[in-house]
C-alpha cells in the first residue's frame, strides 16, 4: 500500500532542484580512479588489471540483462516507457546503457509531473489539502492506532508535534518517506528527478501527463475510513517493508515485474473497500495516461522517453497492455 502512495507523491515532495546530478558525481569518481591507477606501482597494476577485468565482466553482464523499460513502435514514432523508482539508492547509478541510450536518442522527456517547477505552489497546495485547521491526527485516529503510529514515528525520528497537524493521508506518506530514508532510499536518487535534471541540462522538451495539483487532490479526496484502513495496513506490514522494498529494487534492476505487480494489487482482492482506491489511484490514471501517449505517437513522427511510476506500466490493466490493445508493437528492452 505504501508503495502505491509513493508512486504518486514522492515525485514532488522533499525535492531540491540544486542537487548535482548523479551522473556528474559518478563521472568525477571515475576520473579520480583513472588518475589513481596511473600513479600506482607495477605490483599494484597487476591487481588493478584483475579488478578492472572483473568490473568489465560485471558491466557486460549488466548490459545484457533486461531492463524495466519497453519500446513502443508504430512505424511512425518511437517511444520508450521506463518504469520509475521515485525513491532509490545511489548505487542504482550508472544506469544500464540501454536506458541512457534510449534517453539520448529521444527528443522529448515525458513524465507524470515536472517536479522541478512551481514547487512553492505545490507546497502551498499540500498545506491546503493536507493539514488540519481545527483538528489533529489524534482526534481522528482510534486511540490504539494513534499510539502505534506515534511509536513508529518516534522510532525513526519523525516528530509527532509536526505530524499531528497532518491529515491521515499526508501523515502516512510522511511516515513512509522518513522510514525509506532510514533504509537508504531517497527521492534525490529517484529516476524521475535524475532524468528531469538531465533533460533541462540537455534542453530537451519536457511533457507532463498530469499535474501536481491533480495528484494532491486525488490523494486528499479519499474518505476518512479509507485513510484509516490504509494506516492500519501500513503499520501491519511495517517490519516486512525493508525486505519487500529491497527485493523490488533488485528486481527492477534486472527487469523483473513479479514483485511489483503482486504488491500493487495485493490488497485490492483482500479488501473489497479498497477497490475504489485502486481504481482511482492506478486504473483510471493508467487509462488517461495511455490515451495521451497514444495521441503523442499518432500526432507526428517524433521520439519520446517516458518515465512513469513502475506500477503504472505493468499488469493486465497497465499502460503496456492498454497500448498493446491499440495495436502497438511493444518489446521489453
List the helices and strands and how they pair.
Elements: H1 2-9, H2 22-38, H3 42-64, E1 69-73, E2 78-84, H4 97-104, E3 108-111, H5 119-130, H6 137-140, H7 143-156, H8 160-163, H9 168-182, H10 191-201, E4 205-208, H11 212-220, H12 224-236, H13 241-253, H14 258-264, H15 266-270, H16 275-299, E5 303-309, H17 310-313, H18 319-324, E6 329-332
Parallel strand pairs: 2-5, 3-4, 3-5
Antiparallel strand pairs: 1-2, 1-6
Describe the model.
- This protein is α/β, with parallel strands linked by helices and 333 residues long.
- The protein has one domain (2-332).
- It has helices spanning 2-9, 22-38, 42-64, 97-104, 119-130, 137-140, 143-156, 160-163, 168-182, 191-201, 212-220, 224-236, 241-253, 258-264, 266-270, 275-299, 310-313, 319-324; strands at 69-73, 78-84, 108-111, 205-208, 303-309, 329-332.
- Strands 4-3-5-2-1-6 form a six-stranded mixed β-sheet.
- The longest helix has 25 residues, at 275-299.
- The radius of gyration is 21 Å and the shape is globular.
Amino acid at each position: 500500500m505504501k508503495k502505491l502512495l509513493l508512486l504518486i507523491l514522492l515525485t514532488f515532495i522533499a525535492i531540491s532542484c540544486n542537487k548535482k546530478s548523479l551522473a556528474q558525481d559518478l563521472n568525477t569518481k571515475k576520473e579520480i580512479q583513472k588518475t589513481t591507477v596511473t600513479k600506482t606501482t607495477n605490483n599494484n597494476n597487476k591487481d588493478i588489471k584483475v579488478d578492472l577485468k572483473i568490473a568489465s565482466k560485471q558491466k557486460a553482464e549488466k548490459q545484457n540483462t533486461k531492463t524495466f523499460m519497453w519500446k513502443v513502435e508504430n512505424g511512425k514514432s518511437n517511444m520508450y516507457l521506463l518504469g520509475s523508482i521515485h525513491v532509490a539508492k545511489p548505487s542504482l547509478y550508472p544506469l544500464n546503457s540501454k536506458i541512457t541510450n534510449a534517453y539520448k536518442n529521444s527528443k522529448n522527456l515525458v513524465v507524470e509531473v515536472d517536479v522541478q517547477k512551481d514547487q512553492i505552489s505545490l507546497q502551498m497546495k499540500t498545506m491546503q489539502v493536507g493539514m488540519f485547521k481545527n483538528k489533529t491526527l489524534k482526534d481522528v485516529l482510534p486511540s490504539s492506532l494513534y499510539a502505534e503510529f506515534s511509536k513508529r514515528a518516534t522510532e525513526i525520528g519523525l516528530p509527532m508535534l509536526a505530524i499531528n497537524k497532518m491529515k491521515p493521508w499526508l501523515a502516512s506518506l510522511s511516515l513512509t518517506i522518513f522510514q525509506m530514508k532510514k533504509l537508504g532510499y531517497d527521492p534525490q536518487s529517484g529516476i524521475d528527478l535524475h532524468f528531469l535534471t538531465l533533460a533541462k541540462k540537455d534542453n530537451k522538451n519536457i511533457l507532463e501527463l498530469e499535474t501536481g495539483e491533480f495528484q494532491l487532490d486525488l490523494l486528499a479526496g479519499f474518505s476518512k475510513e479509507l485513510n484509516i484502513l490504509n494506516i492500519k495496513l501500513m503499520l501491519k506490514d511495517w517490519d516486512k517493508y525493508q525486505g519487500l522494498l529491497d527485493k523490488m529494487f533488485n528486481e527492477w534492476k534486472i527487469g523483473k515485474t513479479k514483485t511489483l505487480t503482486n504488491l500493487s494489487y495485493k490488497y485490492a482482492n483482500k479488501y473489497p473497500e479498497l477497490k475504489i482506491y485502486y481504481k482511482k489511484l492506478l486504473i483510471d490514471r493508467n487509462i488517461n495516461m495511455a490515451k495521451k501517449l497514444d495521441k503523442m505517437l499518432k500526432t507526428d513522427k517524433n521520439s519520446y522517453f517516458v518515465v512513469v511510476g513502475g506500477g503504472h506500466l505493468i499488469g493486465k490493466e497497465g499502460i503496456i497492455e492498454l497500448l498493446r490493445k491499440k495495436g502497438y508493437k511493444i518489446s521489453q528492452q
